[in-house]
Amino acid sequence: MADENMAEIVGTPALDGTYISEMDMWPFECQEFNRIYPFYENLRAGKFTTTKCQKCGHIAYPPGVICPKCWSDELEWVELPQKARIVTFTETQAGAPIGFPSPIIMAWLNFGEGAPLKHLLARIVNCKEGELNEGDEVKFVVFDVPSHPIEIKKETKICDRVYYAFEPVK
Amino acid sequence: MAEKKNAVIVGGGTSKFGVRQAHLLDMIQEAMKACSDDIPALKPTDIDGLIVATTMAGRHSSALNTAPLVVHRLGLSPTAICIRLDTLCAGSNSAIIVAKGLVESGMAEAILVTGAEKVYMPQRWETNYTQLMVNDHDWDSAMGLGVPPPFFAMIAKMHMKRYGTTKEQMAAVSVTNYTYGEGHTKGHFAGRSLTIEGALEARIIADPFGLYDCCPLSDGASAVIIASEEKAKELTDRPPVYIRGTGQHASHSMSAGWPGETLAEWTHLKVAAEVAFKNARLTPKDIDVAQTHDCFTISEIIELEELGFCQKGEGGDFVASGAIDIDGEIPTNTDGGLLVYGHPFGASGARQSLEICKQLQGRAIHQVKDAAFGLAHNLSGTCSQHTVVIYGKEPVD
Ligand SMILES: [Zn+2]
């Protein structure tokens, strides 16, 4: 007879009940793990923001620590337009990553002439399959996503998180 | 300063592609065996460089620093280079670009380029988490973009809208590639055939794609030898196939940086192709056979346009006209391509280049008559990077 405890061990015992960052669908948003955390703080306040270069004026997306055009690190946070139009979209029948609903609606958005962010691939929420049309207007929306723990000097801190998508303007 | 040498592709082989009951290293050994059968004179001691192209090895096979593992399993002792390289779907053609430079400069004589992926994990759904990591995880992936069909479905819808491309034309790509897949017994879908009706009636994956518009994710490995012309002559009596020119261009990592006017324009591929053709001192008209990255049927259509084999917007008519058939203007994906032979990311580029090698040596299963110049192309990521390698029976100079 094998040790009766052995029978209960499935997979890697050390991982039992543990948060596994390698399988996380969302960013590490907290200050401890990235320097663009103001982006996520701004999301919480309902703002869609990014970094603008104070040297050359370039507005980058995603935001960063330096300007990808001139490599200056003199940046400021600016707001982006929250409305866009659907150029094309897809309602995926199969293969949505686990944790996302299926069908998942994704769209290619156009923010209009002269907008600093020209286009973006985005998930469309609060919308049923078959409801969306090319040319429809959509707006920025923020929602909670699962938090994760981080260990800081043997203490566990819970990091709350949010993410954004777009929803039809009704 | 030593004189510049010519780099050639000598030959190679692949493992069986598919959903495999095998470890990553088993499949690399299978590919090496096939490569050895293809180049019987090749000995482990001939190889002074190793480049292993793989994306999933770290996460799926717990083999992050893959090159030493391959050294041990293949009995190699490289002295010039011994690295793992990752450009996702373009891995082994990227490795061929690196190998070309090393051989031409005299730093290496014979480099083994091997690409391999073990995609399927014991829990298949885990693969979908890895898919989130091969896109720009915190941005596009957090929008739910994992496996590629939704993104390429939008590309297809855009191309249909702007240029009038039809589902029937897309089906012509998969039917042609299934015809070419015949006889390639190591292919993922070996032994299967497809009709236009069969393609159009298949279940929908992501509108407008049916099952046969999408390539499979495959386990598998490939191996080719890139050597100096002098070394190649020691290894084989077959005519040398020169690597004439290469180009590789990336423009962005996530959707906000997309370079085209719309999703239907792949200006970044145009750039990579122009560089490769310039280096090869050739034009699209000179190419007799091509292997383009047919991850989806629409991909092959757009690639034929951006590579310059037909006019922009005319790719749909072009593929349906028979231009990609064996006796057409530009026979394409003559071993079945990703759609039929399968797609173990890092392994695909070398599989394509090996098919071009065989075509130019006159020994392909579906042989293009008098093929003298060939081209291999990969896209990688969410169509963020393009890699082009051009081969010829004559060197550039
Ligand atoms: Zn700047």
Question: What is the total number of structural domains of chain B?
Answer: 2
What is the count of helical runs of chain A? 1
Q: Report the end-to-end length of chain A measured between terminal Cα atoms.
A: 66 Å
Largest interface: A-B, 33 and 37 residues
Low-confidence blocks of residues of chain B:
none
Using the coordinates above, name the CATH class of the largest domain in chain B. Answer: Alpha Beta
Major sheet attributes of chain A: 5 strands, antiparallel
The total domain count of chain A is 1
Strand content of chain A: 35-45%
**What is the C-alpha radius of gyration of chain B, as a whole number of Å?**
19 Å
The share of residues in extended strands of chain B comes to 15-25%
> How is the largest sheet of chain A built, in terms of strand order?
5-4-3-6-7
Mean pLDDT of chain B: 96
Percent helix of chain B, as a range, is 25-40%
Helix/strand-derived category of chain B reads alpha/beta
Distance between the termini of chain B: 18 Å
Mean pLDDT reading of chain A: 90
CATH-assigned homologous superfamily of the largest domain in chain B? Thiolase/Chalcone synthase
E-strand count of chain B: 11
